[in-house]
Design goal:
Layout lengths: L1 H4 L1 E6 L3 H13 L3 E7 L3 H8 L6 E3 L2 H5 L6 E4 L6 H10 L4 E4 L6 H14 L4 E4 L6 H12 L5 E9 L9 H20 L3 E7 L15 E7 L4 E7 L7 E8 L2 E5 L7 E3 L2 E3 L6 H4 L1 H17 L7 H20 L3 E2 L12
Parallel strand pairs: 1-2, 1-4, 2-3, 4-5, 5-6, 7-10
Antiparallel strand pairs: 7-11, 8-9, 8-15, 9-10, 11-12, 13-14
Helix pairs in contact: 2-10, 5-6, 6-11, 8-11
The protein binds nicotinamide-adenine-dinucleotide (NAD) and 1,2,3,4,5,6-hexahydroxy-cyclohexane (INS).
């Protein structure tokens, strides 16, 4: 490890998330520095590397990951480029924080699992950052403590003020509801066994042919029902809420939005404009936990198995969305490397 135990990180993909992670490693968290950035867009890579001391800009991930200053890799390229970046990181046996999704489909996620198993040890943490959100970690601790009894239902809301114009209907599942898939598996410690997608009439802001909002229902292997409202163009702000209904009580997160203001005969709180604000603390804690684990030579957080399981549920979800039918999730057997 370079420079007094400081972790040298290569950030692959310097778009919205990648640039934000570069800022976070450079200015917010401790124990790491950005040694290299990679982007197929050379100008973008140079622009992001410029203000960071000692950071080299590359267009070829293979060249960057072979650099001696690089001890670990943060993958923030589009999902379709994740598999290649992960396999390149494995070639050098480097630890990886891979933004969600691990890969865009279950078959490619299985290939990543197989490659990691060939290494013989886990190297991947998947960027399901809600696992580090202070409210969600409290909910998890409450459910784990058991004082509310067993969870029976989980009501989730996932609202984005807007999404890019290229956002397709399957992306409601693959890009957005993938978070609730991981959140459900993590909070309940159960696999999701089936998915159904229901549609109300589309909102007026939904592009032609795209049903937005949608209601996505998960059934878990332990008999819990989970409903997820996904509304990608709700206009008013970014809202992620979850309420667990248990045998002896309920618990809900995602309502608190900073300040409460009394004014002009009204009272109310703030709503975050987007995920970078709502989950700022979660992103910081996620990357700090990854850096700390890398420096200890261990892994933490959601594994490649969790990334694969979410991809398998996404596949069922996209089929349920297209057919209107209840679709069972097909999951491979969990390999020994991911048993704990
Ligand atoms: N955790 C979250 O809440 C969250 C939020 C947003 C995005 N993401 C994830 O982060 C990733 C990036 O999303 P984004 O919004 O920053 O996208 P983006 O389009 O803003 O940026 C992607 C960047 O990757 C570059 N790129 C494309 N192919 C590449 C390759 N093969 N090698 C290197 N660079 C390449 C592009 O030129 C672009 O600069 C995606 O996986 C996305 O799902 C996660
Ligand atoms: O890529 C983004 C990101 O993952 C956000 O966390 C989610 O709320 C959005 O719906 C999705 O488009």
């Amino acid at each position: 490890m370079a420079q007094h135990g400081t972790l040298g990180v290569a950030v692959v993909g310097t778009g919205r998330m990648g640039a934000d992670h570069v800022r976070r490693i450079d200015r917010v968290i401790s124990g790491a520095r950005v040694a290299a950035v990679v982007d197929v867009d050379a100008e973008r890579a140079r622009a992001v590397a410029g203000p960071v001391e000692g950071c080299a800009a590359y267009t070829d991930p293979a060249a960057a990951l072979a650099a001696p200053e690089v001890d670990a890799v943060l993958v923030a390229s589009p999902g379709s480029a994740h598999e290649a970046a992960l396999l390149e990181a494995f070639r050098h046996d480097l630890p990886v924080l891979c933004e969600k999704p691990l890969t865009p489909d279950a078959a490619s996620a299985l290939r990543v699992l197989e490659a990691e198993q060939r290494l013989g040890h886990r190297r991947v943490q998947v960027g399901f950052m809600r696992r580090w959100d202070p409210e969600f970690t409290r909910l998890k601790a409450l459910l784990d403590g058991g004082e509310l009894g067993r969870p029976l239902l989980l009501h989730c809301r996932h609202r984005n003020a807007s999404v890019p114009s290229f956002f397709t209907e399957p992306m409601l599942i693959n890009d957005s509801v993938v978070h609730e898939m991981d959140q459900t598996r993590w909070l309940l410690e159960q696999e999701i066994s089936a998915v159904t997608v229901l549609r109300p009439r589309p909102g007026r802001d939904a592009p032609p042919g795209i049903g937005d909002p949608q209601l996505v229902i998960f059934e878990t292997e332990g008999g819990v029902l989970v409903d997820v409202e996904i509304f990608a163009r709700c206009r008013f702000g970014y809202q992620v809420q979850a309420e667990a209904v248990c045998e002896r009580g309920t618990a809900r997160v995602g309502d608190a939005h900073g300040m409460l203001v009394n004014r002009d005969g009204r009272w109310g709180g703030e709503i975050a404009p987007d995920f970078t604000v709502r989950f700022a603390t979660a992103f910081d804690r996620q990357v700090q936990a990854w850096v700390d684990a890398c420096r200890r030579g261990t892994v933490t957080g959601p594994s490649a198995w969790d990334g694969y399981a979410a991809a398998a549920v996404c596949e069922a979800g996209v089929r349920a969305q297209a057919t209107g039918e209840r679709v069972a999730v097909e999951l491979a057997a969990r390999p020994a490397l991911y048993q704990d």
